[in-house]
Amino acid sequence: MDQIARSPGQVGAALQAARKAKGINQTTLAHLSGLRQEMVSKVETGQTGVKLATLFDLLAALDLELVIRPRSKSSAADMDDIF
């Protein structure tokens, strides 16, 4: 499941898709990540101001990793079609 994310909303949508693919709800993800359900919701809805540590806690709980690479040539509008 490779997804390109260039905004908080796209990161949140990718995390939500991964959570749903695993068949777990926000409360379960919160428990697995050591966070509150409200924080999971905040991240999934793309709200700004989320700490990097929070993002990494969620990635670890979902068995995902962050990969940094040069930006592809696709436009931002093309990325919206993915989500």
Automatic annotation (TrEMBL):
Listed name of the protein: HTH-type transcriptional regulator/antitoxin HipB
InterPro entries documented for this protein: Cro/C1-type_HTH (IPR001387), Lambda_DNA-bd_dom_sf (IPR010982)
UniProt superkingdom: Bacteria
GO MF, one annotated term: DNA binding
Annotated CDD domains: HTH_XRE
Positions of the HTH cro/C1-type domain: 15-69
